């Protein structure tokens, strides 16, 4: 099967909005630390999708991206019904791996006014968590293989 190729510009940064769901929170209404991992994945996969290629298409072509490193540093709590902005950017990589950096920022805090959110931003308190991932490219058998050239950071694209 031939590898999918981008139909649009391959971007190296993007954002998505995520509303914190009740099921992602502890009994006190604070998002559980494990909830951040899917949010980062959503940011990464939507960044890829903006190029016109979905991760599902890559998998059908035998290109799999597996997490080899994941780090999240939590700065402030996220609460039920907060609207977050997940900022994702390609931070580096090479022929077989791609690295991403993330910021989880406050978009809207449930129950807070726009002035309170603006004050958070002005004080630099709107960054709630930061993270990094490294993904390695493997084939269907789990053997390391090169990234598609258009996806490899070393080639000037993603």
Provide an overview of this structure.
The chain is α+β, with helices and mostly antiparallel strands and 158 residues long. The chain has a single domain, classed as Thiol Ester Dehydrase, Chain A, CATH 3.10.129.10. The protein has helices at 36-49, 55-60, 114-122, and strands at residues 13-19, 64-74, 83-93, 97-108, 127-138. The model has no long low-confidence stretch (mean pLDDT 91).
Biggest sheet layout: 5 strands, antiparallel
Query: How many domains make up the 3D coordinates?
Result: 1
CATH architecture: Roll
The multimeric state of the shown protein is single chain
CATH homologous superfamily assignment: Hotdog Thioesterase
Number of helices, where a helix is a run of at least 4 consecutive DSSP H or I residues: 3
Average pLDDT level: 91
Q: What portion of the residues fall into strands of 2 or more residues?
A: 25-35%
Total strand count, please?
A: 5
What would the CATH topology be?
A: Thiol Ester Dehydrase, Chain A
**How do the helices and strands follow one another from N- to C-terminus?**
EHHEEEHE
Residue ranges: pLDDT <50 for 5 or more in a row? none
End-to-end Cα distance: 22 Å
Tertiary shape: elongated
The percent of residues in helical segments reads: 10-25%
What is the structural class?
alpha+beta
Spatial strand arrangement across the major sheet: 1-3-4-5-2
Rounded radius of gyration (Å): 17 Å
CATH C-level: Alpha Beta
């Amino acid at each position: 099967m031939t590898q999918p190729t981008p139909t649009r510009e391959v971007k190296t940064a993007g954002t998505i909005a995520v509303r914190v769901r009740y099921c992602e929170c502890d009994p006190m209404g604070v998002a559980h630390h494990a909830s951040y991992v899917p949010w980062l994945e959503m940011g990464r996969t939507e960044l890829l999708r903006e190029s016109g290629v979905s991760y599902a298409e890559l998998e059908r072509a035998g290109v799999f991206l597996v997490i080899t490193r994941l780090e999240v540093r939590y700065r402030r709590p996220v609460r039920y019904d907060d609207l977050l902005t997940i900022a994702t950017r390609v931070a580096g990589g090479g022929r077989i791996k791609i690295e991403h950096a993330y910021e989880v920022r406050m978009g809207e805090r449930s129950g807070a006014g726009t002035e309170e959110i603006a004050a958070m931003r002005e004080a630099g308190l709107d960054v709630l968590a930061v993270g990094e991932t490294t993904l390695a490219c493997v084939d269907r058998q789990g053997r390391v293989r090169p990234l598609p050239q258009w996806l490899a950071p070393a080639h000037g694209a993603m």
